[in-house]
Amino acid sequence: MAAEPFRAACVTLCSGRDPDANIDTASSLVRDAAADGAQFVCTPENTLLMEAGGKHLFAAVKPEEDTKAVSSLAALADDLGIWLSVGSLAIKVAEDMVANRSFLIGPDGLIRARYDKIHMFDVSLPNGETYLESKNYRPGSEAVLARTAFGAVGLTVCYDLRFPALYRALAQAGASYLTVPSAFTQVTGEAHWHVLLRARAIETGAFVFAAAQSGSHENGRKTYGHSLIIDPWGEVLADGGCETGFVSADIDPARVAEARSRIPSLQHDREFALPYDAIGADSTTS
């Protein structure tokens, strides 16, 4: 039996280098979303701070037990009685390494799941921007599925979006909802954000909640925004545009089973051999 309908919300931030200010802003918007009726609220990647590396990053990060944002956001979820998906917080895991860690917090304030971003954003863009996330961030190694009152949620972060096998695995493990908190660049966001998110929803027959960073940040980075809520048929239910704030949508969990019954592709996997060079295999030498 499908869960009862509920309202979900995605918060759009423009995080800077001050963790306390970032968490205050995020908390205020989470409160606004809850006041609007949201029972499941998502914040974007880098909720704690927007910093790729260097002295600003390591001056701000601490181990999880010493990161006050964890306890303050847990208390917020408890106070509001909501499920809170904290897109990611930078958590110190070694002297020179940080985890990009997502948290799912229950309405009782308890942390129900943690997920460390698996795929590292190591790219050079055509406009000259270069990102080397693996230099300072330790990748995760485990996909994470969490149970909620509304059904199972698969946790992912940003660059994971480009690896559809992760989402298929989560859906086949039972996920009805996929969180994709992100800080997509302006360039890649304009080209791929909507297309990739709609594709992941369609491929998995799951709702996608994608809270995003948006705007020009203190460290010089520019992010695309457009927090999205997408239904299992690929329809965009809410688009936050470029402004900070929140968007919400009413979610009918029955839509998951409906979409998957119409296109039951999650049940149709087949084993296959890896590709080979047909031309090379057929060629002969004299």
SSE arrangement:
Layout: E1 6-12, H1 19-35, E2 40-42, H2 54-60, H3 68-80, E3 83-94, E4 97-105, E5 111-116, E6 122-124, E7 130-132, E8 144-148, E9 151-155, H4 164-172, E10 175-179, H5 186-204, E11 207-210, E12 214-216, E13 222-224, E14 228-230, E15 236-239, E16 245-251, H6 254-262, H7 278-282
Parallel strand pairs: 1-2, 2-3, 9-10, 10-11
Antiparallel strand pairs: 1-16, 3-4, 4-5, 6-7, 8-9, 11-14, 12-13, 14-15
Helix pairs in contact: 1-3
Could you explain how this protein is built, in words?
- The chain is of the alpha/beta class.
- The chain has a single domain, classed as Carbon-nitrogen hydrolase (Nitrilase/N-carbamoyl-D-aminoacid amidohydrolase, 4-Layer Sandwich), CATH 3.60.110.
- 28% of the residues lie in helices and 29% in strands.
- The protein contains seven helices and 16 strands.
- The chain has helices at 19-35, 54-60, 68-80, 164-172, 186-204, 254-262, 278-282, and strands at 6-12, 40-42, 83-94, 97-105, 111-116, 122-124, 130-132, 144-148, 151-155, 175-179, 207-210, 214-216, 222-224, 228-230, 236-239, 245-251.
- The protein has a six-stranded mixed sheet with strand order 5-4-3-2-1-16. It has a six-stranded mixed sheet with strand order 8-9-10-11-14-15, covered by helices on one side.
- Helix 1 runs parallel beside helix 3 (68-80).
- The longest helix has 19 residues, at 186-204.
- The chain starts with 5 loop residues before the first strand and ends with a helix.
- The mean pLDDT is 95.
Question: What is the mean predicted local confidence, pLDDT?
Answer: 95
Global geometry:
globular
Q: How would a textbook summarize the main sheet?
A: 6 strands, mixed
Radius of gyration equals: 19 Å
How many beta-strand segments? 16
Strand order of the biggest β-sheet: 5-4-3-2-1-16
CATH topology: Nitrilase/N-carbamoyl-D-aminoacid amidohydrolase
The CATH C-level name is Alpha Beta
The CATH H-level homologous superfamily: Carbon-nitrogen hydrolase
